[in-house]
Every structure is written in structure tokens, then in C-alpha cells.
């Protein structure tokens, strides 16, 4: 088997159906199987899968295990040469799986541990498909309002002109990147056998960054392949039954955990302090509103 395509679902029944249909419609020239790990959905996802896609390998969990731990269940069961992790809120726009497979199979890419394609918003504007590792320097600049890159990209996003909107930052194809956004990630089996699978201390967010950080420590490269194109609606599982504040808390907790694993406990403590400074500034600049207070409280409650 060339590729195991792994989807983790949580109350995304209709999106999961559309995603699987797009896989069957677009994927050619490569042997593959589809795994779905369901995190105790209550919207009929499991029943739909059993009725409409009996050939799909289904793991139905009795509780929500989160993103990384659920993916690990299928990764460990799979025997394929590559594992392609795909969000259920995605639709393949072209033969994306084969494109990524062919890229990984090139002799010159034998040290590529993971790669991913170009994600698009529903209006077909480009979406962030890769990320940069968070560092104390970046977080410090953010805490005092001096993160110039963040300011630049926020400014671009607010510009209604199609010029800026269509030309959001995207690496060139084949470029080395820090990490691939977890919505679509092709993992080399031999690489994860060496570096390990997802760290199961993460529930959601940052687990793909930490895995890529570990792959790089083991000498592997992470690459972006723009020819592989995927529509990504985004946030379908995270916001399904969670408030925006709860999602933000999960993101902060995961960021602190990333700092602790990647850089050590002292770095995590400094990161917590910088987040408090950042949300204190936000609290003051928002004139002490209840929402700003709630966000500051979330930062103060962060644990290392």
C-alpha cells in the first residue's frame, strides 16, 4: 500500500462525506486506503460511514481523544509507506495525494520527512498552509506590540483590494518550511518510525509543529508542494461545540506545551510571562471590557 489517508472526525458528518467523495473522485495513479478515526461524534457520523462507505477503515472512539492521539491510532495500525493526514473539513481540488506521493518518491527527497500542499479558502483565495516555529524572541515582540510581520499580514488581510488578498504569503514549491499545517500532511513512514508519532500530551493545536520540530531534530526536511491543492473550510471541529474563548485557551495551553517540549521548562515559563504581558496590554487597550478581562484571566491561569 502506498498511502493511508487518515481523517479524524468530530461531529462533521456532512463535511466528512464530501471529503471522502473528493478523495475517490480526484485520487488516481496511487494505491491508497482511507481510515476515519471518529472522536465520539453525536451527529450520526459513524452511522453514515458504515452505511455509505463500508470499505473505509473505521475506528470509533468512545470519547474525544483530540487530534494527535486519534491520528496515532490509525498511523500505528497502517502498514502503508506514507500516511496522509487530512482534515474532514477539506475537499481535494486535484490529484493532491498522488502529487505529494510523487514528490516524496523522488530520490533527491529521501530526507523529506513530511510535506503538504496549498490550502485554499472557500472563495479560492490562498490560505496559510505552512507555519514558522514559535520562539521566545517572536513572542516577546508580540507581547510589546513589535511583531512587524504579524502587523504586516494583519494589515494585508484587512485590505479589501484583490491584489493583496490574492498574494498572501506562500512559499515557493519545494521550499523548506518549519512545519506543515495539520489539515494536510504527508508523513514518511520511516521518518515517524525514527522520530515518533504525535505527542499525545497535545489535545488540539501545535501538535503538527512539535512533530515537525522533532523530525527536523532527527535530520529530516519539511517541504511545501504548491501543486497539491486542497480546499479547507477551517475550524469545523474546534468551533463545533466550543466558544471562541475556549478555543483560544486550548491554543494557549498548546503553545506553552510546545515551548516546554521544544525549548525546555524555563522557556515555557518565560513564554507564559510574555502571554500575560500581551493580554494585559490588550485588557488596557480594550478599556477593561469583560471579553478582555476573560482573555487576561485565561493567560493568568496558564500552567507550565
* CATH level-3 fold name of the largest domain: Spore Coat Polysaccharide Biosynthesis Protein SpsA, Chain A
Strand content: 15-25%
Q: Which blocks of ≥5 consecutive residues have pLDDT under 50? A: 159-167
Shape: globular
> What Rg, in angstroms, do the CA atoms define?
19 Å
| pLDDT averaged over residues | 92
SSE string, helices as H and strands as E: EHEHEHEEHEEEHHHEEHHEHHH
- The helix tally amounts to 12
Helical amount: 40-55%
The assigned structural class equals alpha/beta
What's the architecture of the largest domain, going by CATH?
Answer: Alpha-Beta Complex
Note down, in words, how this protein is organized.
The longest helix has 21 residues, at 265-285. The protein is globular. With 304 residues, it is an alpha/beta fold. Helix 1 runs parallel beside helix 2. The strands form two sheets. Strands 1, 2, 3, 4, 5, 6, 7, 10 and 11 form a nine-stranded mixed beta sheet that branches. The protein has two domains: 3-129 and 170-232, Alpha-Beta Complex (Spore Coat Polysaccharide Biosynthesis Protein SpsA, Chain A), CATH 3.90.550.10; 244-300, no CATH class. Residues 159-167 have low confidence and may be disordered. The chain has helices spanning 13-26, 45-52, 67-77, 96-105, 136-143, 148-158, 162-166, 189-195, 207-217, 244-263, 265-285, 290-300; strands spanning 3-9, 32-39, 57-61, 82-86, 90-92, 112-120, 126-127, 130-131, 179-180, 184-188, 221-232.
